Amino acid sequence: MKKNLILFLGILFVLVFSFSLIVASGCCSLTNGGAQCVNTLHFECADGADFSEGADCEFTSYCQEGCCYDEDIGVFDSRVLKTACDVDWVKNPTCDLPAAQRGCCVLGEETIYETEGQCWVDTVERALGPNSEVDWRAVDRQTCFGIAEYQSRGACVTDNQGCTFVTESECWEQGGQFSTNYLCTSPSLNTSCEMTGETSCVEGRDGVYFVDSCGNIANIYDSSKLNDPDYWSQVIRVESSCGFGDVDGNANSTSCGNCDRFAGGMCRSAIENNFDVNSGNFYCKDLSCYYNGTTYDNGESWCDYDGVIGNGLDPAGSRHWRYTCNYGEIQIDACDDYRNDICVQNFLKENAGEDAVDARCVKNDWRECIDYNEESDADGCNKNPFCEIREVTIDEFRVSICRPKYPGGFDFINVSEKRQEDNEEVCGLATRTCTSFYVKVFSGTSFVWKCQVNCECETISFVESMNDLCIGLGDCGGYVNYQGNYTDEGYDSNRGKIGEALISSYKNNIIPVPGLFIVMSEYLNATAKGEGSLGGSGGGYPERNIIQKLLGGIGLWGDIKSVKSTFTCKPWQPPVGGSDCTNCNNDPLRPCSNYRCESLGAGCEIVNKGTEEEMCDSGEDDGMPPSLGPSLETISDNEMYSNVGENGFDLTSKNGGCIPAYTPIEFGIVTNELAQCKFDIEMVEYEEMDYDLGGNNYIYDHKTIFTLPDPSHGQSQGLDWEGDLTFYIKCRDRFGHETPEFYTVDMCVIEGPDNAAPLIRRFDPIDNTLFRFGTTQANISIITNELATCRWSFGDVAYGNMENEMVCADVLNSPSSTQGYVCTDTLELVDTTNTYYIRCMDQPWLEGTADVGDRNPNQESTLYRLRVPEEMIGIEKISPDSDFESPTAQTEIELKVRTINGGEEHTCSYSFSGYTNMVEMFETGTVGTHVQPLKRPAGTDKIYIECVDESGDSVQGSTEFRIIHDTSTPQIARVWQIGNTLHLITVENSECVYSTENCNFKWEDGTSTQGGEEHTISVIPGKKYHIKCKDAFENAPLGCSISVHAI
Amino acid sequence: MLLRDVQLRFMPSSDKMEKKVSLKKLSCFSRGNSRKKAQLTIFIIVAMLIVVAILGLIFIRGGEKIGKVHIEDPKQFIRKCVADAVEDALPVILKNGGVIDPENIVTYQDEEYNYLCYQAEYYKHCINTHPMLESRIEKEIKEYTRQAVQYCFDSMREDYESRGFDVSGGSTDYSIDLLPGMIEIRLRKNVEISREGSSELVDVFDTYVNTPLYWLTMIARDIINDEASNCDVNYNEYVLMYPKYKISKTNYDFSEIYIIEDRNTRDEFKFAVRGCAFAPGL
Lengths: 1047, 282
Hints:
The complex is a heterodimer of chains A (1047) and B (282).
Chain A (H helix, E strand, L loop, with lengths): L1 H8 L3 E2 L10 E6 L5 E6 L9 E3 L11 E6 L4 E7 L6 E3 L11 E6 L2 E6 H12 L8 E2 L3 H6 L6 E5 L5 E5 H7 L2 E4 L18 E3 L6 E4 L5 E4 L44 E5 L12 E5 L2 E3 L2 E3 L4 E5 L14 E7 L2 E4 L8 E9 L5 E9 L2 H10 L2 H6 L3 E8 L2 E8 L12 H12 L3 E12 L2 E8 L6 H12 L7 E2 L5 E2 L3 E3 L6 H8 L10 E2 L15 E2 L6 H12 L5 E10 L24 H7 L3 E4 L7 E4 L9 E8 L3 E7 L2 E6 L10 E17 L10 E2 L6 E9 L3 H6 L7 E10 L9 E6 L11 E5 L4 E2 L6 E8 L3 E6 L10 E2 L15 E8 L4 E10 L19 E6 L6 E6 L4 E3 L3 E11 L5 E6 L7 E2 L7 E10 L1 E11 L4 E12 L6 E7 L2 E15 L11 E2 L3 E7 L5 E8 L10 E4 L2
Parallel strand pairs in A: 24-33, 40-45, 47-53, 55-61
Antiparallel strand pairs in A: 1-43, 2-3, 2-4, 5-6, 5-7, 8-9, 8-10, 11-12, 11-13, 14-15, 15-16, 17-18, 19-20, 21-22, 22-23, 24-25, 26-27, 27-34, 28-29, 28-35, 30-31, 32-35, 36-37, 38-41, 39-40, 41-42, 41-43, 41-44, 44-45, 46-48, 48-51, 49-50, 49-52, 52-53, 54-56, 56-59, 57-58, 57-60, 60-61, 62-63, ...
Chain B lengths: L2 H4 L14 E4 L10 H31 L8 H22 L9 E4 L2 E8 L8 E2 L4 H30 L3 E14 L2 E14 L2 E7 L2 E4 L2 H18 L4 H7 L3 E8 L2 E8 L5 E7 L8
Parallel strand pairs in B: 3-11
Antiparallel strand pairs in B: 1-7, 2-3, 3-4, 5-6, 6-7, 6-8, 9-10, 10-11
Helix pairs in contact in B: 3-4
């Protein structure tokens, strides 16, 4: 079958992405959209806004963030641009300043959590008057609430036996007789105020209070004390009143108004809430919230989830939810979508013995888990509470990956090329090939192939194990959305699809595990769990050991064969269509979002965005399949589209002919609507097609890059392929409408016997690489377009005479790299420039056969050079390096760094704060001078410099200088006259002019002396000379510098 | 004849913000030397007064036809007029997070929310775009009402001039001070209303408007500083510490939308924050 042929020949399909238009980006102070300080493209920057090409906003002067403050009023605002601050500004973005610390300002019975400066304003200017004492205490916000104090109040009786319940000072103002802690209804005071059954709420307090007939507040409402004169006589504190310490804060009590907002009760209108109370119109309203059968007190917060969490099992589209009980209402405080936040929960012990629930959304550090794989940092993975190491082991096949416990979410529809690439990179960590090895053994009458190693990989358990690994990396693999709809477009395997039992278990993952939540403390006390390693045998090189082991026992290539089991982990895809979209809108406690909506169906989208009618709904289904055409902008340099028709096109070389073998070819198609496209070399149904065209996403542009093999190699392996090839393409839109006919791409490869020697496609490291100073050895690899053996020598000799054999462990049909077949070796670096001659020879399988002469060695060597610097990179000079004067408050300077030695590519960076967070200089990249224009205020600057060359060697340096803001006019140091010549000395280089009239002459009307520090004037005795001098910064006096009488 | 007797009744103000009201009394009559001349003069004056009175009556009746209301007390008129203008500004200020014309907004449920702290890029803290929010609000209200204040004085002047008074005014000293529970309006302008040699000077028009805007602004500023520094606010803490206010926070389209509502007045201060937004995927 042709399919076997194409697999055998190893056509390499590689996704490519369009090359972004290279447009200068940099830091823009204000974009057209009104955003400040954004790293963006120049054309998105508003007219007149500052733009620094190539600069990151973090390191531009106009985008420096700091603390904007007015110490007089105690106001400190964090992260403010200097240009936006009208008052004082300091480069301390989080206002980590002593005066910015907030504490508790006690204003009588009221407390405010604010800075000491604010407290002063509130106390002296606003509340208590200029002679009052400022009471500010350095405590946290919660403590502050607790120290709201009772200011001593009492009955203030006036002449006519009227009474008000006020503070002593207020009573003085009224001219009344003050009785501390007495109520106006106290019989001993004999006032006109009487006990009533009326009640009221009091601002700043939680409870319900009795009100007397004069309208004064009395004690806490207690219906049993309605007519108790003692209770109406003196002030009784909350602690001694009814129901103090009640676990529910006397919520819904008909008789007691000692409410406590933290326990669950707060004074509210009984009429508005339809509540019957024994007396009065107010009561302690129950502020509890009821959620899924659980009661939460006011202020408690808790987590809820869309399904199973952790172990990489969070379904696509799911979110972590945090709720807060906000005075009887459930407030949704959803954690960041795409599972960028996780909800963690804790139980806090309360005094009364009940646990209070406290939940937080914390940033999900899932990206770091992915990065550990690149760095092979198993320790880092183990120590990070957001990550876990997961392994798959099947016989000798082992994969070990650091993956997030709570995988991050992806977007699904119309994904940008960059995002596609990123998503595929994340999922691709679980893309593995397991090679099973067979050995030919004699079985009675004949030789048969018997599987010896990794045999289990050829079963469905390989696919299921790998898919389990895959789904935990992100929205990857075959998995379910948060509504339990399973799709399997997120993986491919030549071993089939995962079984129904596993799918069924996946579907159960949309049911949250009761009582399961992420424990907050786990994220506070994370410790290392042990050591491990990342990687495994699922790649290329490790299998070499297995092969060699087998070869060691058998001795010949011909006695073993390998069988590959592949698993490709790809981004998860939503179900086709839009029938479930509206399910997103059904739960007011779990509002819909773009992520949730798109996870329900490829046809789902948010409509009426920004309006009250915003919802998830099905997009318009035109009922038509997508139409296809060539992507005219996507074609490799030496090929072209020919014979473009409705149903396809030809892919030919520029002259219209066949394409040389092993040439990388890039092409693409475009669809008129969002669609997924696949292709195959056989006319099979869409679902059976093996290859994604442009990934498995719903996009418009679908591109791929591949190489065509040499037909003769197939023929030499007994396969029948003449060199003509057709790609059959089908696309499917978001609603499942497939193109009914195949869209075909025809091409052919130049045929003939294989007379071509292998082509070395790539060196790693690349030719002419400069290694670090002092390096003596280099591990290198080369990639050939076809399976080959390779050798190297210090001299240019024939392949057979080359003395050094490289390690070429790949086997036919199994290139280690997507670029081709890999050979490796370790080279000695004996000189500053080391030249190696490399040659390869193809068709190694012919070795030891009669056709060995058909092998094609390179007739010419490929030169490969590796270098080591003679001396390490150094910094020769940094300027400015001394103090200088400037006439302006802001001075434009050029920071210049001169580098020497090292390699040819020197890149210098600078920073004002040390050798971290450095920013690349504006003009840098080569040996010599590196320049950064800067605008600096007067004062002392220390600038840190680090330069690195292409070898990775680096050197650090710094410069310190003072910019002196010079606004002074030149001073006359000395004046004397010799004969008729007046001599002047100025303290700095100056230009002077003089007049004999007065000091008010214009500069241009004056007679000039010579510039410099010494000046002479020819004078007439008896005349007065008015002289004014200015320095290089044009600093000149308004009048004269000096007036001199000539003698 | 005194000006007071003709039209104006300046009410003595008990308002403690009033600093100065001066009443300048001038005599209207001069004495002549010749008795006959005096009699003639009196006759002419009386005749002129009759004519003026008739014309005034016609004019006043004409004014009444179009519903013009006479200003009895210029101070109270200006105070109310300016307070009304400030009150008109308040809903706009509250809705737009402290500004009249928001420049950078997110639309959510048909309402526009002004970003007070914004970062367009992913993974970075928001930048506080409205530092010293209290001062900014004072400036915004002042700018928004400046024309209205001028209109108040113009209306008063037109009214008096239509009734034969001369009105002259000095420069306007106008400021807004956001205070707990109120906005204090400080308005000073020397206004002299005169006719027939008598004049009256009014120069203090200070007044205030009750509003919870100060505390709403303080809470908003706290939230913005928390968001700018820590990427988040301790929502529970805000809920418990500010029982007088209902603070709601909605996570929408990579932004946080905040509404701080005064539970008594139902005034709502609305704004949005975008910072520390995390992108889908890597």
